[in-house]
Design a protein that fits this description.
The protein is α+β, with helices and mostly antiparallel strands. It is built from 21 helices and 16 strands. The chain has helices spanning 8-21, 25-37, 42-83, 88-103, 131-134, 143-151, 170-179, 215-277, 282-293, 335-350, 384-424, 430-439, 463-471, 496-511, 526-545, 560-565, 571-589, 593-602, 607-614, 618-632, 639-654, and strands at 107-114, 119-126, 137-138, 155-157, 183-191, 198-207, 296-301, 306-310, 354-356, 359-366, 369-377, 448-454, 477-481, 484-490, 516-523, 552-554. A six-stranded antiparallel beta sheet has the order 3-2-1-6-5-4, sandwiched between helices. A five-stranded antiparallel beta sheet has the order 8-7-11-10-9. It has a five-stranded mixed beta sheet with strand order 13-14-12-15-16. α3 (42-83) runs parallel beside α8. It is elongated and about 175 Å long. The model is unreliable at 314-333 (pLDDT under 50).
Length: 657
Amino acid sequence: MSHTPQSPARHLRRLLELLAAGAPAEELGTVAAEARRNGATAEDLAEVEQATEAALRVHSTLRQHRRREAELTALFDTAGDLAALRDLDAVLRSIVRRARMLLGTDTAYLTLPDEEAGDTFMRVTDGSVSELFQNLRLQLGEGLGGLVAQTARPYATPDYRTDDRFLHTGSIDAGVLDEGLVAILGVPLLLGSGSGGQVIGALFAADRTPRTFAPDEVALLCSLADHAAIAIDTAKAMADARIALAELAEANVVIGEHSAAIQRAEESHDRLTDLVLRGGDVADVADAVAGLLKGDVAVHDGSGRPLTAVGAHGGAVSGDGGGAPGGGEDGGGSAEAADLVAAAKSSRAAARAVFRDGRWVCAMLAGQELLGCLVLYGRPDLDGPDQRLFERSSVVTSLLLLLRRSVAETENRVRGDLITDLLTAPDRDPAGLVARGRRLGFDLDRPHILLAARTGGEARHRLADAAVQYLFGGGGVSAEHEEAVVLLLPRGDAGPGEAARLAAGQLGQLVGSPVTVAGAGPAAGPRAIADAHTEGVRCLRALRVLGRAGQGASVAELGFLGVLLGDHHDVDGFVTTALGPLLEYDAQRGTQLVRTLRAYFDCGGSLTRAKEDLHVHVNTVVQRLDRVQALLGPDWNSPEQALELQLALRLHLLSGA
């Protein structure tokens, strides 16, 4: 069957239609074959073949233009991503995905340097299936990627496993093998141009089959790498800007807080200073500090004794400077007071407030002299400005205490003259003495405890000042008289003996040497106070003779010596003190312990003679004396106590009992 030759124009039109439809090159080649089958002449066939070659060239040019258009579109899209940069990881993933798509590779990935570890790591991968490959790390100069980072130049290999241009390592080769990669193209991520460019990473495209990468593919990957470098640098700049803005905002807050703190400190200082200038006392300052710092505040003297308190932690302390010495306070002798003194000394050494046992303690100083401490409760989180305010408050309180002490010393000197006149000539003008006392704010008609204190050595010159400090805020008065210091205290709950012991401990701490204190009273009126002083001086002399220096006691606590030294000779009280347990036991049980004890002493301590005198068995005498020991204590037969017991037995016998 023969074919009618067709016009070459028909075949040329067919080529144009295929080009317009974007047909593949294989379909363009079929046009010449079709002309040959249809019996085209040699001349027409040559023309069709020439037209087919021209169509193939046009097809190739169009394909290159479309590819370039796709590349440009990808680059424009990447630029758009950079312009709207929000998430660096998202932008890098987009770049790696486009590199894989445009180059038509099986996988693409991007590595960045780890400055701390000194190597590079996989930041983003696309098309990877191997976990080993995704966690691969490369040292500088190792593998294709290490060479790209070291030389800042692109490198490509059609078969990485057999390419000896690169430094192969076991870990890199294992990762590449696990991923199944063969052909790899890597280009550097550069910031800047020329020799001064900085490599900040590398972008790769790879196939799992051998492949030779064309120059335009290398150029395309370099363009994407440039965009990735810009994205990384932009993100870093934005991160630095955000950090800088955050730091500026934080600095602005700090400056604002500091300014507010300074203003608050100035206002607080003015308020406290005005309080002092207007004649406020320690309680007013403590109340103001508690209000400013939103906590409980207490003020203690140098021995830990409370002067005033505001809030639940300070206890029931009066606002006028605290209870009088000897009025029932522990006077700083407790463990609590000792802890406060230790904390105040730590504060003095550190020159700042210290936090101890859930409270802030700040020393109040006059030079290096520890006047006391300011204590703040309920503010464990005390920050810098509030801490400085607390420390300034201690300075203001110190000034107030110094002012009050100066006033008290002046008043005490004037009152001391009154005490000296009272003790020297109480009967000369009793009414005048009482009137003078009232003008000085001191009522001699009120009951008072009198203390006579004495110490030796250099401490003797410090005792008068120590007495003023001890009485500070308590309403008492002191004066030097006849080589001793006399203190008059308003009568409190404590008796003269307890008040003497308390004063001995406190005054000893203040002068740094043992102080012996005798107590007498209570006494009211010039004559009674003078008599109490006479009794106190006798008691003071007795304490020294008895070897009890540095202690405190009253005449009533000295046993039979007290009976001899006292003005009232309380015989019944002495007998009751010495024999009371035996007398009570005999009265309740009808026994004869007192009679047995008297017989024992009358017989010179002989059990045999005592049992004959009592007409009982010797075992009975022994049993009764055992009971005496159980009631009076194991030292009942010591020389000193035996003497007191014998005197008490004689006085009991003389009383007719």
